[in-house]
Protein: tRNA-modifying protein YgfZ
Amino acid sequence: MLTYNLPIKQPIESMYLPLTLMYLDDWALVSVSGPDSIKYLQSQLTLDVAKINPAQHYIAAHCNSYGKILSNLRLFYNNNNINYIIRRKILEIQLAEIKKYAIFSKVKFSDSKLLLLGLAGFQAKNILHKIFKMIPDLQLPLVQNDETTILWIKNPIERFIILTTYKKGNFIKEKLMNNKVQFSDSKQWLALDIESGIPVIDPQNIGRFIPQSVNLQILNAINFEKGCYIGQETIARTHYLKTNKHMMYWLEGKTDNLPLANESLEIMVNNRWQCTGRVLASVKLNSGLCWIQVVMKKDIKLNSVIRVQKDENGYFKIKQLPY
Structure:
């Protein structure tokens, strides 16, 4: 188990984030093995799995037959096997769904026991260079150092996902403590994902949205030219007919009642409050401000006044995502 000797800090906006090590216990790592791995995943995911580069990592979606998202994930090679990272809350549901049609394929899905860490903030890359021989960057977003795999992510600031053993994880922690690192948990990584515009799908929102409604096409998570996969008909038809009416937004403001996943918000229309949207995730920052990731209609006015339901003293504004 990874041990901490210092207190966990509340989430901080990326531009003010000091060197921070995050224990990503709200995410899980799945390993996919077997000779039919690529072929099987190709029939399940929105990404063209057959063309993935071993030195890259990719966002993809796993959908049901109606084209609605069961999970979104980050996919990559790790020690010659396909791995993917998903929210831990949906791990059991996601594994059951993706295994449904695997009975006739030589493929195995397993919950990896590797440790997931996040590193971001001041001089993060330079500090990693003191620990590892190879560090990922824009040209090489994924590298492997013996028992450790490191992923580079561009937004909202340069940050890293570290997959390693618990023994190595404690070694990394001890090394970072010499560089005045602060410790945080999954909430800080969640805040960075919200700021980056990476959708967060938890159990309350499984099967509610097509990939385009949570901006996955902007994140290159959908290949519209690959062969058949579950949900493709709806996803492709929506794309070519341009019938998607929703998108994902990042909101910033204040509230006494942080909304939960799948709750609605309220928007001021003609001097009246009306229900709008579905919340994907929310987090409270150390500044007292709150961030909300929410799916709303595409034609909403960017200067709209929004609040959590019946929160008379609260307010939220739409923030610009990095894409």
About this structure: Residues 245-323 form a domain with the Elongation Factor Tu (Ef-tu); domain 3 fold (CATH 2.40.30.160).
